Every structure is written in C-alpha cells, then in structure tokens.
C-alpha cells in the first residue's frame, strides 16, 4: 500500500518512514508526485493537518497522511504553536531551523520558566473527501535549553531537553528519540489506526 506524506520536509519523511515500517506500507513524499503545497490558514494543528492531507489526496488519488507539529512555550501562552516553522520571520531572520533556534533563545534569554511541550498531530484520509479521517495526537513535555546541544534531528531538537533524560532530542539516537518524541507518540497511535481501519485483515 502506498500512502502519500503531505510534506516535503525530509526530516519528517525519514522519521515517519522508520516508524511506519512495521506496517509494510510505503510512504512517498508529496514532492515526488506533484508540486505545490496546501494553504495552512487555521489556528489549530488538527485543522491544518486535515487541510494538508486532503490536498495531497486530491492531487495524487492516494491515501494521505499529514503531520502538523509545533512548539508550545508556556511562558508565551502556547506560542509559536502552528506558526513554529515560521517563528524566525517575525524577528527579522530568514526562515530556517538554525534561525528559529537562534530567535527562540534570544526571546527566552531572561525567561525563568523554560517549560514547553511539542505537539504532533497526524491526520490520515483514504481520499480527498473522506468523511472519517484518522486523527492521532502526540505530546511531550520539554525544557528549553540555554544553548544548542547535539547534532542529530532537525527543527528545535538541539534546544528541546527531555527532563527525564537530561538530554536534548539532538543528543539522542534516532531510536531513543522516536520512543520519547511527540511524533513518535502520534505515529504509534496512527500506526494502530491504519492497521485497524485501512488495511485488509491478515
């Protein structure tokens, strides 16, 4: 079974391919099948993920899974949230992981409460008009480190410290990150949903 991943983020594709491997399905990045990206005008992860999944399904005729994920900082009332990927732009930096990290550390320079959480919302549709999308949500509590640590992962991983491990996601192996991360948690839920509702009985 082929499923289009409604994203051109290579880091997400790599993580999700590894997590979905037990199902025997093939995840294909939408950029390999068509050009263009869905608009994400909404203020919640689930609405944006659903829009992306329907967009990819309509352009490919394949089942689609979309991930909308973000960082929610307690001291910032849950922001940047759905605007996480564009966080650096509001502070005059170009878009990009390194600039996002730099902007976040600058904004938190004098903030004592460094608690935050990462959210990953996965939405799956069998076709563009699917009336019953699959929805899986994973969350993980983190502390924002005072400086980047580690070289693995992507996004804010170098400054997302897992309290019980005392390490950032960028310091973890891929296997350990998938065990603890927001995307690992949502993917395990989605794996079971796809197995139960999309795949024929074995």
UniProtKB/TrEMBL annotation:
<dbReference type="InterPro" id="IPR029001">
    <property type="entry name" value="ITPase-like_fam"/>
</dbReference>
<comment type="similarity">
    <text>Belongs to the HAM1 NTPase family.</text>
</comment>
<dbReference type="GO" id="GO:0036222">
    <property type="term" value="F:XTP diphosphatase activity"/>
</dbReference>
<feature type="binding site">
    <location>
        <position position="177"/>
    </location>
    <ligand>
        <name>substrate</name>
    </ligand>
</feature>
<dbReference type="GO" id="GO:0005829">
    <property type="term" value="C:cytosol"/>
</dbReference>
<feature type="active site" description="Proton acceptor">
    <location>
        <position position="68"/>
    </location>
</feature>
<keyword id="KW-0378">Hydrolase</keyword>
<dbReference type="GO" id="GO:0035870">
    <property type="term" value="F:dITP diphosphatase activity"/>
</dbReference>
<keyword id="KW-0460">Magnesium</keyword>
<comment type="function">
    <text>Pyrophosphatase that catalyzes the hydrolysis of nucleoside triphosphates to their monophosphate derivatives, with a high preference for the non-canonical purine nucleotides XTP (xanthosine triphosphate), dITP (deoxyinosine triphosphate) and ITP. Seems to function as a house-cleaning enzyme that removes non-canonical purine nucleotides from the nucleotide pool, thus preventing their incorporation into DNA/RNA and avoiding chromosomal lesions.</text>
</comment>
<dbReference type="Pfam" id="PF01725">
    <property type="entry name" value="Ham1p_like"/>
</dbReference>
<dbReference type="GO" id="GO:0017111">
    <property type="term" value="F:ribonucleoside triphosphate phosphatase activity"/>
</dbReference>
<dbReference type="GO" id="GO:0009117">
    <property type="term" value="P:nucleotide metabolic process"/>
</dbReference>
<feature type="binding site">
    <location>
        <begin position="154"/>
        <end position="157"/>
    </location>
    <ligand>
        <name>substrate</name>
    </ligand>
</feature>
<dbReference type="GO" id="GO:0046872">
    <property type="term" value="F:metal ion binding"/>
</dbReference>
<dbReference type="InterPro" id="IPR002637">
    <property type="entry name" value="RdgB/HAM1"/>
</dbReference>
<dbReference type="GO" id="GO:0036220">
    <property type="term" value="F:ITP diphosphatase activity"/>
</dbReference>
<comment type="subunit">
    <text>Homodimer.</text>
</comment>
<feature type="binding site">
    <location>
        <begin position="7"/>
        <end position="12"/>
    </location>
    <ligand>
        <name>substrate</name>
    </ligand>
</feature>
<feature type="binding site">
    <location>
        <position position="39"/>
    </location>
    <ligand>
        <name>Mg(2+)</name>
    </ligand>
</feature>
<feature type="binding site">
    <location>
        <position position="68"/>
    </location>
    <ligand>
        <name>Mg(2+)</name>
    </ligand>
</feature>
<keyword id="KW-0547">Nucleotide-binding</keyword>
<keyword id="KW-0546">Nucleotide metabolism</keyword>
<feature type="binding site">
    <location>
        <begin position="182"/>
        <end position="183"/>
    </location>
    <ligand>
        <name>substrate</name>
    </ligand>
</feature>
<keyword id="KW-0479">Metal-binding</keyword>
<dbReference type="InterPro" id="IPR020922">
    <property type="entry name" value="dITP/XTP_pyrophosphatase"/>
</dbReference>
<protein>
    <recommendedName>
        <fullName>dITP/XTP pyrophosphatase</fullName>
        <ecNumber>3.6.1.66</ecNumber>
    </recommendedName>
</protein>
<feature type="binding site">
    <location>
        <position position="69"/>
    </location>
    <ligand>
        <name>substrate</name>
    </ligand>
</feature>
<dbReference type="GO" id="GO:0000166">
    <property type="term" value="F:nucleotide binding"/>
</dbReference>
<dbReference type="GO" id="GO:0009146">
    <property type="term" value="P:purine nucleoside triphosphate catabolic process"/>
</dbReference>
